[in-house]
Amino acid sequence: MPAILNPSLFILHHHPPLSTAVLSLRHHLNISLFSTSRTTLRVLSTSSSSVSIESSANHNVRTGRSGSSTSPPIEHDTVQKIDVNPPKGTRDFPPEDMRLRNWLFHNFREVSQQFGFEEVDFPVLESEALYIRKAGEEIRDQLYCFEDRGNRRVALRPELTPSLARLVIQKGKSVSLPLKWFAIGQCWRYERMTRGRRREHYQWNMDVIGVPDVTGEAELISAIITFFKRIGLTASDVGFKVSSRKVLQEVLRCYSVPESMFGRVCIIIDKIGKIPMDDIRKDLLSADMSEVAIEELLQVLSLKSLAKLEEKLGASGEALSDLKQLFSLAEKYGYSEWLQFDASIVRGLAYYTGIVFEGFDREGKLRAICGGGRYDRLLSTFGSDDLPACGFGFGDAVIVELLKERGLLPELNLQVENIVCSLDEELQGAASVVATILREKGQSVDLVLENKPLKWVFKRAARINAHRLILVGKAEWEKGMVNVKTLSTGEQLEIKLDELE
Fold this sequence. Notes:
This protein is α+β, with helices and mostly antiparallel strands. The protein contains 15 helices and 18 strands. The chain has helices at residues 7-14, 19-29, 95-114, 161-171, 215-230, 245-254, 262-269, 277-286, 291-301, 306-313, 318-333, 396-406, 428-440, 454-463, 474-478, and strands spanning 40-46, 51-56, 118-119, 125-127, 144-147, 153-156, 179-188, 200-209, 238-244, 339-341, 355-361, 370-374, 389-395, 418-422, 445-447, 468-472, 481-486, 492-496. The strands form four sheets. An eight-stranded mixed beta sheet has the order 3-7-8-13-12-11-9-10. α5 crosses α11.
């Protein structure tokens, strides 16, 4: 067997100042410097003031032909504290925020069900191809996308409508039209953050599949307005800007702008009010529009009344017909005061084909509250036969900001009907019996799990807004009774266990 170089000898030979420390440690640990065992000494650090030496019985030493080795010693480095903030653009939901989210979602669901819609959901993780429809869409650059371990390109969903379309195609003729579906789901977009815009948000969608008439859009807008009213907003707080993609199509057709450029032009127009008009003109020039066509288009997009639009485009176009029908239906529904025509509204997604709308706050402090419209040709982009469809998306972030602005955020304190506490550690089991009885009767109970003084229990009861305090004492329990204190009045009674309700 070849000779083994003992690291301890290396230390003694090349580092004379360390000799005393090594020999002292050898004596203390009873280690032979000339042993051929796997016990070795390692110099971890040296300085003018200290020497750090470690003994390791499993140091990585090769012997003979085995080539075997053991894992290196665990370094006892200080564990670095993690950043306790969530990733940029995302949120935690501690209890108070979760109560607000649940309140909001409850109202979304109540309104949707009130209008006869059924709830659906989809995977947060979808195929990337679902969102790569047409070049130039801003959403392509905002995807959280990656290749999974099966070499598939996937993405966190940035919106819900493509998933809806996929599910409709999957169901095919097994479902009868029209479909009225709603969903509340988390969406992800890697975009610049502003007030009311994050990289993740929850979105409420309502969609009508299989109805070609503007009655679909009118019903959807009615649902949103019903929601606004439920949470205390009025037509003086918010409104809807309404237009049609067909307005833009008619103008582009007049100036022989290729149909293939339509989606790109829509994306540019959607930036009006967000970037300088000079930049809008430059972008339109790059989309093969002449300067004459650009000026005409911008003039039409500045129109704010249907009468002016009719003067410009004539009375025979589909765009004007659809818009007139929508405003007529708004009067029948009783929400015409919420609507206004604004030709510049086109929405940024390529799949819209007709009526489009956006909810906005009338003070103009926030970005769009919600938006939607008609998308009759979305299914064919996935290789299926088209179906007439319309829908909207309503995010959770902007509406909360608006409610803060208006002082309309609800007070959503924790509320528990009963707090149950044993007065003796030996009666903890008895207290759990009381809690179980009440819970089986449908009541909420906060059971005190530790032996706590009454002062603490009363503070706890106040914090959770408990209606009653139920005390389990030895004398009462032996009689099959408990003390019940109504906290709002201070009234206290002894009640038999079988009469507790």
